[in-house]
Description:
Chains A, B, C, D: InterPro entries: Gfo/Idh/MocA-like_OxRdtase_N (IPR000683), Gfo/Idh/MocA_oxidoreduct (IPR051317), GFO_IDH_MocA-like_dom (IPR055170), NAD(P)-bd_dom_sf (IPR036291). Chain A is of the alpha/beta class.
Amino acid sequence: MTKKLTYGMVGGGKGSQIGTIHRKALNLHGKVELVAGSFSRNFKNTLITGRELKLDEKRLYNNYVEMAEKESKRNDKIDFVVIVTPNNSHYDIAKSFLENGINVMCEKPLTVTLNQALELQKLANKNNLLFAVSYAYTGYSMIRYARELVKSGKIGEVRFVNSQYISEWMAKVPFIGKVPRHEWRSDPDISGLSNCVADIGVHVENLISYVTNLKIHSLCARMDKFIEKDRLDDNASILVNYDNNSKGIYWTSQITIGHENNLNFGIYGTKGSIEWSQERANYLRLSTIDEPFKIISRGNDKVSDHIKDEYVAPGGHQEGYVEAFARIYDKFVDAIYKRKQGEILTPSDIDFPTVEDGVQGMRFVEKCLESSNQGGVWVNF
Amino acid sequence: MTKKLTYGMVGGGKGSQIGTIHRKALNLHGKVELVAGSFSRNFKNTLITGRELKLDEKRLYNNYVEMAEKESKRNDKIDFVVIVTPNNSHYDIAKSFLENGINVMCEKPLTVTLNQALELQKLANKNNLLFAVSYAYTGYSMIRYARELVKSGKIGEVRFVNSQYISEWMAKVPFIGKVPRHEWRSDPDISGLSNCVADIGVHVENLISYVTNLKIHSLCARMDKFIEKDRLDDNASILVNYDNNSKGIYWTSQITIGHENNLNFGIYGTKGSIEWSQERANYLRLSTIDEPFKIISRGNDKVSDHIKDEYVAPGGHQEGYVEAFARIYDKFVDAIYKRKQGEILTPSDIDFPTVEDGVQGMRFVEKCLESSNQGGVWVNF
Amino acid sequence: MTKKLTYGMVGGGKGSQIGTIHRKALNLHGKVELVAGSFSRNFKNTLITGRELKLDEKRLYNNYVEMAEKESKRNDKIDFVVIVTPNNSHYDIAKSFLENGINVMCEKPLTVTLNQALELQKLANKNNLLFAVSYAYTGYSMIRYARELVKSGKIGEVRFVNSQYISEWMAKVPFIGKVPRHEWRSDPDISGLSNCVADIGVHVENLISYVTNLKIHSLCARMDKFIEKDRLDDNASILVNYDNNSKGIYWTSQITIGHENNLNFGIYGTKGSIEWSQERANYLRLSTIDEPFKIISRGNDKVSDHIKDEYVAPGGHQEGYVEAFARIYDKFVDAIYKRKQGEILTPSDIDFPTVEDGVQGMRFVEKCLESSNQGGVWVNF
Amino acid sequence: MTKKLTYGMVGGGKGSQIGTIHRKALNLHGKVELVAGSFSRNFKNTLITGRELKLDEKRLYNNYVEMAEKESKRNDKIDFVVIVTPNNSHYDIAKSFLENGINVMCEKPLTVTLNQALELQKLANKNNLLFAVSYAYTGYSMIRYARELVKSGKIGEVRFVNSQYISEWMAKVPFIGKVPRHEWRSDPDISGLSNCVADIGVHVENLISYVTNLKIHSLCARMDKFIEKDRLDDNASILVNYDNNSKGIYWTSQITIGHENNLNFGIYGTKGSIEWSQERANYLRLSTIDEPFKIISRGNDKVSDHIKDEYVAPGGHQEGYVEAFARIYDKFVDAIYKRKQGEILTPSDIDFPTVEDGVQGMRFVEKCLESSNQGGVWVNF
Ligand SMILES: NC(=O)c1ccc[n+]([C@@H]2O[C@H](COP(=O)([O-])OP(=O)(O)OC[C@H]3O[C@@H](n4cnc5c(N)ncnc54)[C@H](O)[C@@H]3O)[C@@H](O)[C@H]2O)c1
Ligand SMILES: NC(=O)c1ccc[n+]([C@@H]2O[C@H](COP(=O)([O-])OP(=O)(O)OC[C@H]3O[C@@H](n4cnc5c(N)ncnc54)[C@H](O)[C@@H]3O)[C@@H](O)[C@H]2O)c1
Ligand SMILES: NC(=O)c1ccc[n+]([C@@H]2O[C@H](COP(=O)([O-])OP(=O)(O)OC[C@H]3O[C@@H](n4cnc5c(N)ncnc54)[C@H](O)[C@@H]3O)[C@@H](O)[C@H]2O)c1
Ligand SMILES: NC(=O)c1ccc[n+]([C@@H]2O[C@H](COP(=O)([O-])OP(=O)(O)OC[C@H]3O[C@@H](n4cnc5c(N)ncnc54)[C@H](O)[C@@H]3O)[C@@H](O)[C@H]2O)c1
């Protein structure tokens, strides 16, 4: 009976948002066990959270520094750490664990500056550690199939991309009669120099990069602050030019009342197009020049077998966000396991978003700011 | 550090369909651990499956009889067993575990005859054991909210119900170039006297009963066998009269090419209607007499807090089949845990489909057969 | 410069519902002119309506008997009459015009009894007159293409049909604060022995017959009267067996709050299926065994050229109800014109619903009543 | 018996695209009659077309100059002319008729330069003639209701607009095996300096202006030419700033395979949003801060009575493109009629797109070119 891999978590204390989803996503495939944590700045919260999760109290730490150091010295040290704290702390926390020889999964945006991100990238490489970034949407099976379709030439050369991540929560907050939990998102000291682009715009950048493999050549961004009390952008329109003369529009918003988390795209090539929306995550719309429009569902025979092999729910039933998230984790965990077994990883083992993707995200944020701050001029990427 | 509850599984061996989904659903909330199994009639398969799942080989059993007996004698015996074998074996297996004092989660259809189902019900009650049946669709948050809406009178008195579970796999099987794995479904020796009604028709019966609380008074069924080589029904149309003079149409099919697992309903009352489809499981369509049609999504403020508290993914992201399934299991596990702590269960603790629901399903199957075999006459329920 | 054909109308006076749509539909292609009318039982209304329509007052008649007789004696007599009065008067009015040698377009249900309908059929044939019935939905281009697809064998042999015409207006009437204009619909003296089946159920019967060419062999109907003050059926569920062993479910309702005029069908064959809904009238969903689901739109290249030649709006724009209606009229008008030119009509000229379809509709109503009145037994067609 | 108004047409000869739709739209309400035409540069085509339409051959003219002059001298001269020729001829033709005292309906883009458009505006005003431009989409009932909703404050202050007119025909043309009929569209000598923006981009500009009443303050446009053989833009992305600090993205394309004529918008305000798409032209999606998302259909009680009074098909049935077009014409015809009766027009009589809208369209085209030609800089409007 081989033992499961183990992990620790920084952030994700009682009352926080995303940490619990990481834990459920990690539970799903039953391959890893949470054994250590510093869930909050407040140790009491760490204790409460740890007890609810039935952890050994000895592995509940006062802070991440202590955690990184003490865990690194154990024989049964955690195989990786999950960082789910607000943006401004990602850099220091990730650095601590990398320096102590522990693999990292970190939330996006990776850091608050591009430089920090580049440093983490260097450090991870130097220490030969695996470093994933939780761009979870790339875990949907239909996203993976879309990537294959584009690569296969099914829609020809990509000409144009239209992609959006539009949501409403910032516009609704003052009206729902509850103190908004996430005030930090519009606080530059914690969030960094951008709210909307850094929070959800980077998902658009990563998703399109994943599906199309297009490289941004230059962009023109207009970042808006519509809500009075906001201190950072809550909406952004970005014209993008790619290296190969194809073009795109990205739009990201937290003020589009009527959309909860509408992440979507249309990719238009010389021979056809692919469209996807998170609200119908189990389906692709595929159109080609000479055929009727098609709806490809997860259950469809055309979907590649290796993608089907990764299904959690049988074709025809719906898979959701947690299944996508779990798929990303599954690849990450498999890679750690393989390396732990002494095997050498091949490129195809790195089938999850990495620190490089995190770096690209931060470059995207900085370039958008550079363009927007000058009134929406074109800047090279 | 309290220990997790433990469970065993009968069926679900390598190559089988539904067992793995039970395991993922049970993983999701991280409250239970699989520790024992008789995954197949073939002990080699049980061994392979058990090893992959990293179980202690001492708890991999030759057959369910041995498993029930040996587990019942352990101090750390499993808290419940999950039965995911073909229909004809449910009765004997469930009986063994009930007789050995072990709680049961059994797949639907509960048995192959109504009498068997009634016996299991009696036995579970006599031995004071919890007995759940995996009607997983009642675990969707929007189904739970639909039930509340109906109860609250939002749509008035229900007049009419239209519900379908239509699918295509039986019609596609011969064409997809693979030996159909589930031949047993049209083999009366294994499946029982019905295929389509017993396999998916019972989900319609259970779902509508759950959401509306309507009791069937009489029905008129036409069961069809469209596919030549089929030996049992692959399609059925059922007119239903309820106790309160409301009426319904149920339609269940395995030959509707174009539908993967389209479970859906419309419930029409004196003041409004509610509609839902599994393909858009995170949304309800609510129409009332004097307002525009509304789309209620999981993220919406109107959804009751206690339903929201059970969300896995944040409102706005999609939850899928496994999340619904996990919710059913979560309620079942909580009830077992509570009782294990010596507490007394209240009716609200039994928030999962039980052996009573399983019995109703078998009654439904038998009544449909009774009607259809006489050429589609009306029979009392 | 050839003259346009001319027509007269009975019914359709100021304040009535459907007459004005007939006039718009007849206007669309600009081939005919309204020149005579008896728009109401009340001659004052006929005068007002006639003046608004800028008719010559000499051709505004006290009643349809006078109109039929006087028009028949004119050199420039109307080429056809349109009958848009309530159901119970269709028979007498149609008879008058047929006896006076004038072609007829009559609203559905054709009459109030099957016998009346058969008489009209005989009379039209005897007098060699064209007699159309305004089953307007068969005029949608996508319905015409669906018929071709079925005929071509694209979906194989039809196994099952599910079709609905569900609406809400009877359930909403008492709540919208206006006296319902159409009380006559639930008055047996005017409507005949059925309201819902005769009013909209016949559209389902006709539409499915048109698209599939299936003949009903037997049926089992449950007709309901849910609304207290109703005197006739407002909802009906009908199981249908066709001659070739295929089966169907028809559901027609006036109490399904949330549906305005949701006429739809799914037709499931051995190789595929076709689905259509009036709310997306410009699209067909086509599924076949070995391909992804397809959405065929009016603009699609696969649609037959002769169907495209009849488009009013260019492919890609939407055509609505009036365009469908106009297409039916266009075929009827062309046939009258051709015959007037002394040419002999071929079967393909009769590309509109005829008195035979009207007869089938009445047979359907009577058979549903026969079945339902005996408690929902099977009756042969 | 008052006589109908009469009109003439320039362009719209046999084989042309849009002229026939104007004629059907004008037929629908039965208020006007086509009596004169110069349908083509080729008089033979004019004769053929005129005969098919059963016109008096004396009023079929060699060219529009002759037509304008001769018609203006008749006692029964046409009440208005419809101009449906390619873009570069609009100016001269419109000028001729205005100079001869005849009201004009002209296709968009109004002219090929802003200056020409301004001249026409001046001339129409000077000669006190009515001049409409066929921005037909503003004729949809749901567009009219959307405008009312915005005006009423239902969605608060508008913050952001996203609007698209995306289509595929330019990308499909070389593949559909037919000579593309509309080569002139990418010929600068006929089309003007823009193809895509001038052809369909102006519809976006006009529609948003109509619904929101927002004035463009500045814009940044990127116009693309993706198809090799194209000589003008076939795609454009336009960032828009409005006077009141609200912002927008317009995207117009002829290369988005998979979209036939997908004109759509989302308008996001401080309290809610409205969304509409031509493919579901009979519905609005209305979202507000504190309520579930709503689908407003034409049949809904909330729609204003004066909008309902203009329905062609009863609520619940679909109205299409021709009905929208006919509504625009109906307003235009009513205004001409009223003035002809000697009455004075009030602003509310001018309920159709006018030469002012045409001028705005040309300004939009020129500003987009100005921005794009400099590499996508911001230019004031
Ligand atoms: N991938 C996604 O789709 C997604 C979604 C939501 C959030 N996020 C990202 O996840 C991160 C967390 O967001 P959230 O919404 O969960 O925030 P949150 O405020 O809800 O939770 C943050 C948690 O971190 C803890 N914390 C803060 N500083 C800490 C420290 N130094 N040591 C230990 N714990 C500490 C807090 O006590 C809290 O429990 C952010 O970077 C956010 O951008 C990503
Ligand atoms: N709730 C649902 O939506 C749903 C979905 C699918 C299947 N099911 C039900 O689940 C059950 C299993 O279906 P399946 O599709 O997974 O079937 P399957 O044939 O794929 O798997 C059955 C498994 O049971 C094992 N088995 C058979 N007899 C056994 C025995 N005596 N002891 C131990 N193992 C034994 C087989 O070796 C196999 O591994 C059926 O009753 C079916 O109706 C329910
Ligand atoms: N095809 C369809 O989809 C459709 C839709 C609606 C109605 N209909 C049918 O159309 C018919 C009319 O329905 P409606 O809703 O317009 O009814 P309505 O009550 O609105 O109008 C009926 C009109 O007929 C006139 N009329 C009655 N008796 C007359 C007579 N003897 N002579 C002259 N005029 C007379 C009335 O004055 C009135 O103007 C019905 O048979 C109905 O079933 C069909
Ligand atoms: N409102 C819309 O949605 C819409 C849609 C399509 C076209 N249009 C506009 O309508 C106009 C016509 O487009 P189309 O697609 O119908 O073009 P088309 O090429 O199909 O037809 C143009 C017609 O004009 C005739 N013509 C050309 N010059 C003439 C002249 N001097 N005198 C008389 N007739 C002449 C041609 O013979 C032909 O019959 C264009 O300006 C176009 O932009 C608008």
